Amino acid sequence: MSPTSPLDPEQLAAYFALMEVSSLLQHAVDQQLREEGGLSYTQFQILATLGENPDGRRRMTDIADRLVHSRSGLTYQVAQLAKAGLVTRESSSDDERAVIVAATPQGLALLGRVLPGHVDLVQQLLLAPLTAREATVLGGLLGRIRTHMTAIPPRSAAPRRKNAPKS
Amino acid sequence: MSPTSPLDPEQLAAYFALMEVSSLLQHAVDQQLREEGGLSYTQFQILATLGENPDGRRRMTDIADRLVHSRSGLTYQVAQLAKAGLVTRESSSDDERAVIVAATPQGLALLGRVLPGHVDLVQQLLLAPLTAREATVLGGLLGRIRTHMTAIPPRSAAPRRKNAPKS
DNA sequence: TATTGTTATACTCTATAACTATA
DNA sequence: TATAGTTATAGAGTATAACAATA
């Protein structure tokens, strides 16, 4: 009655190391962002997503799709950013239902101010012990996993989402 | 004024992929654990830590060290587990200050009930797209990073913890 | 009818600081 | 004095469900 093989030690080690490394990294990065910019990691990600676009704008739904959030969670976070004057919200002219989030000059400035320290930290914590080639290998493997995870989301172990509310 | 090189595309890709993969995996795993066992991922980790020991016991501090928590956060989580009858707490006979957390039979039973689905999910989401060799390589790289992160925690970007409460 | 987004609400979790007790 | 752990408290974040408006 075991649908899959029970993970050999090598696989277990990979899993544990992944979880521990990402946990430590998230913690450290979140702290740096709060100290240097008063931003949570989530807020930073939203701002960085906006910064990627040349015009610094993006639809709510597009942001949500990238960052896993529930809609309401994104509304909350964007409201925080707006309160801080880092983004603005306007309704789209194309689709009156849609809301376009735009980074303000202050938002982009803060992003620019926080980014160097962020990059430094990632460099020191995550990449320092790897050669350039190893970093590429790591990125390649994780990239494939990401593709797999986002493509195969049947999530077979937790399939019914709308059928069995369980209680 | 750039203390470190600004991350080439390969490095950036590795960083982003790591964060996205771990985020997706955490989310999926947390959901499975809640559905099948009513456990948060943190609670599962505590229980699993106890399960590792032959006698199913461990000191609070030892758990906290492994799982990054603040003391009070661990107290809270262990209290939740105790409330659910999954662990008990007794003061150590060696050191009257210390508290020993022990998994109850129900706790170990729940762990056993939840583990197969957990392993399956990790297998399907994380490991399926990798060959055995690749999993080993991934684990090796991440293991080295973990060692580095836990050994070098000068956390140079956020050093003073007790000096500058900042406000 | 389906989609976009917000709101209300309730809950989980985390962290800080003050505190107790033992070493 | 230093260490182990708890408590009080307060805040941040998240999710669900109900809702309004547009497509």
From TrEMBL, chains A, B:
Residues 11-147 form the HTH marR-type domain. SMART domains: HTH_MARR. Gene3D superfamilies: Winged helix-like DNA-binding domain superfamily/Winged helix DNA-binding domain. Pfam families: MarR_2 (PF12802). This is MarR family transcriptional regulator. The lineage of its organism: Bacteria, Bacillati, Actinomycetota, Actinomycetes, Kitasatosporales.
